[in-house]
Amino acid sequence: MLRFLPVGDSMTIGSAGDHTWRYRLWQHLRATCEGPFTFVGPRETLYDKATDSPTSYAYAAPDFPRAHLAGWGEGWAHMAPLIGHAVREHRPDVLLVSLGLIDLGFYTNAEQTTQNVRKFVREAREARPRVRMVLLPVIPNIRAEADETFAGELTRFNELLEKTVADLDDPTSSLLLAPIPESYDIHTDTYDGTHPNESGERKLAGAFAGAMWEEWGVGGEYDARSSYS
């Protein structure tokens, strides 16, 4: 069975009432993947805005493998120390990673964040040498639209991430860079300029699905018009 571990921040954990891109990707893989698969990880909950804590199980669509390693307000700096244990315990074959906005917004600059990416990859491979990873760059968000300095750091980090993926890619532990969806629009694909709504969830799922299909032959071609709902 192919085991996927979603890793991310608020856009990956989602909040109470969300489907999440994790669910959209699961629906796509369920329709296209030839063999059995599941999602694994140490966490299952959504973030509850009412209590400011990750304690909600109120998924819009609850009947799918909800396991993940994602947290509201967590980034590469937070996940790098956790990934080794999570990989050893849950034995994922593929990590699906969407991180960086929190780091650049509050904790580290582009270069420092890149060092945490390298630590994350190293820790994951030490725990499971043949693990594969798909990394999503930081996608458009409202802060970058309003803050020129932050936008510059975001651009710089995404450039460094591309170089890092090329540098660390290994035939025995493949590393892919998922594309930022070309049509992603913070005004129509998010509900607040950052967090994805239904169309945003579908586009993020499509970024991961497309990368895996094109490079590894996993799943199938992603149909954005499909009813992965």
Describe this structure in words.
- With 229 residues, the chain is α/β, with parallel strands linked by helices.
- It has a single domain, classed as Rossmann fold (3-Layer(aba) Sandwich), CATH 3.40.50.1110.
- Helix 3 runs parallel beside helix 5.
- The strands form 2 sheets. Strands 1, 2, 5, 6, 7 and 8 form a 6-stranded parallel β-sheet that branches. Strands 3-4 form a two-stranded antiparallel sheet.
- Strand 3 and strand 4 form a beta hairpin.
- It is built from 8 helices and 8 strands, in the order E-H-H-E-E-E-E-H-E-H-H-E-H-H-E-H.
- The mean pLDDT is 96.
- The longest helix has 21 residues.
- The relative contact order is 0.17.
Overview in brief:
The chain is 44% helix and 14% strand.
